[in-house]
Amino acid sequence: MIHEEEVLGRSYDHRLMRRLMGFLRPYRGQMLFAGIVVVAESLVGLAGPWLTKEAIDNGIRHHDLVHLGQVATLYLCVLAVGFGLDYIQYQVMQRVGQSVMMDLRMTLFRHLQRLPIAHYDRTPIGRLMTRITHDVDSLNELVTAGVGAIFGDLFALVGIVVAMSRLNGELLAVTFSVLPLIVIVTLVFRTKIRRTSRDIRARLARMNAFLNENLSGMSTVQMLNRERRNFETFREVNAGHRDANLQAVFQHALLFPVLEQVGALAVSLIIWYGGRQVMWTGITLGTLVAFIQYTQRFFRPISDLSEKYTILQQAMASAERIFGLLDTPADPTSPVVAETHAQRDGRPRFPLTRSFEGRIEFDRVWFAYR
């Protein structure tokens, strides 16, 4: 039987993303502030290689200690500002992520209370536990380490390309010569990592379901003397989860070193081509050093985006299952009604319960001992 965790959906679903954005809407002000901080942090990060160029060309080259000291002081200030901006952005996104995670879990728990009893008869409780814990955590990772980081990496890439084009267009063309290799590597590993991520979540859901059923029914297991058989079954389930994680480790252990090697290839080409220009007085040594630093920073966001793509895939799969659970029809006789109570912090409002009025009648009910 194919479980819902094993079904491969789209890596990005705008319909699911739009529903997820509904939970971010109460915090759009904080998200906007975090976006501004990310842009500022990216701009500050671009100053480092330029300051290195200034120190080499106008300080070291002319033996100007005063100018060299000023550049070094400014570099320390840039590092301090970057550290402060990174701290602020991390704090804001973590607070938003935790708030969204709380709202989403409250919504799930409210809906679980409204589902008919038959749903719990045919759905393992461990799988529902996975929805409200692990799947929600995956969405939290997307909010805290995905949305802001993806936006920051894209903005950093644009800024680095602009800075590199202003330094030297020929060296920029040399850097872009290795981009086809990056595209090939990304396409090769994308599908494999996606399948492995789905496999990990499927096996985790199975293990949670198995543990929940066995722990809640341990008295029955002991009464039927099934300890050894259930232990061997758990060994297989646990080993499958371990093997799936090791497969993911293997794929990531290949992907990121390969991307680093491509970046190193670009740096070596720049040293070869740019070094000749320095010897022919086409560019200064400071320009070459700055360009090498920009190149290294150029491939860092690309590597980060490859990792964030995995986070996006995991979040889309988790969102598909969470919203699938939320779309499960509720019991029309549920005592949960549409009344809500306001909360001062502007979070989503959740229904309260109302007691029914009526009576319970026992007609011709009897029992006897045999």
Give a structural overview:
- Helix 3 (47-60) packs antiparallel against helix 4 (65-114) and helix 8 (179-216) runs parallel beside helix 11 (285-326).
- The chain has helices at 14-24, 28-45, 47-60, 65-114, 117-122, 125-167, 169-176, 179-216, 218-223, 227-279, 285-326; strands spanning 336-340, 351-353.
- Strands 1-2 form a two-stranded antiparallel ribbon.
- The protein starts with 13 loop residues before the first helix and ends in a 17-residue tail after the last strand.
- The chain has a single domain (4-102, 110-331), classed as ABC transporter type 1, transmembrane domain (ABC transporter transmembrane region fold).
- The model is unreliable at 337-346 (pLDDT under 50).
- The protein has 370 residues and is mainly alpha-helical.
- The chain crosses the membrane at residues 31-51, 71-88, 142-165, 171-189, 253-272, 278-295.
Key structural traits:
370 residues, mainly alpha, ABC transporter transmembrane region fold, two-stranded antiparallel sheet, 2 strands, 78% helix, Type_1_exporter, nucleotide-binding
The 3D shape can be described as elongated
Q: CATH homologous superfamily, by name? A: ABC transporter type 1, transmembrane domain
Helix fraction, binned, reads: over 70%
| Secondary structure: number of strands | 2
Sheet-strand content, in percent, reads under 5%
- Outline the low-pLDDT stretches: 337-346
> For the residues shown, what is the average pLDDT?
82
Biggest beta-sheet profile: 2 strands, antiparallel
CATH architectural grouping: Up-down Bundle
CATH topology value: ABC transporter transmembrane region fold
What is the count of helical runs? Answer: 11
Count of folded domains? 1
Strand order of the largest sheet: 1-2
Distance between the termini: 44 Å
CATH level 1 class label: Mainly Alpha
Membrane topology: Multi-pass membrane protein
Keywords: ATP-binding, Membrane, Nucleotide-binding, Transmembrane, Transmembrane helix
Transmembrane segments: 31-51, 71-88, 142-165, 171-189, 253-272, 278-295
Main location: membrane
